[in-house]
Amino acid sequence: METRNLAKLYDLAPLDWSGVAAALDAGFPQAPGSGGPDRHTCWLVTIDPDGRPHVNGVGALWVDGAFCFETGERTRKARNLARDPRCSLAVALAGYDLVVEGEAVRVADPSMVAMLAERWRSAGWPCEVDNSGGALTAPFSAPSAGPSPYFVYRLTLQRATSIATHEPGGATRWRF
Fold first, then answer.
1. pLDDT confidence of 35, banded at 50, 70, 90?
2. Class of 2-175 per CATH?
């Protein structure tokens, strides 16, 4: 991992990735009243066909060093990812604002989809694995997710940038 201190100008030490990872491992519930000003929101940025960024909220989980999220097959973000898997995801965590960049690929392994469904159910979203074993269904989802089935994606980190929101502060970029 390559670390670049973005706050050297202010004589601040680089942040330690292990602190950011611990905040991710602690979880960032997305239900109202669970964090941030009212909740944690994950913002996914994909690339439209004309090169413009497309930003939308997603329900995301941090699992084994990667973000996992879901969306409907016909949503713009799913179509964008099918064409170009490069994307970014941003979230405000306890102590850190974080933006990650990488590539998101659809999760095809039924056991992984089932494990993620269980994690989302535990967080309050009543999803189930569909008959194909490779997607999710649920009685509701965020309006931006479109109708089911919901495909699951794994965003593998290539770069991350974080700003500490607590004293003494700091800002760091990592390449993985």
1. low
2. mainly beta
Between CA 42 and CA 161 the distance in angstroms is: 15
What is the C-alpha separation between 12 and 10, in angstroms, rounded?
5
Domain boundaries, the chain: 2-175
Which uninterrupted H or E stretch holds 144? none
| H or E element that contains 29 | none
Q: What are the pLDDT digits (tens) for 53-96?
A: 999 999 899 999 999 999 998 999 999 999 999 999 999 988 99
- Residue whose entry in the numeric block shows the structure tokens 């590539």: 103
Nearest to 144 by CA among 48, 43, 51: 43
Coil vs helix vs strand at 13: coil
The token duo for 138 is: 């649920």
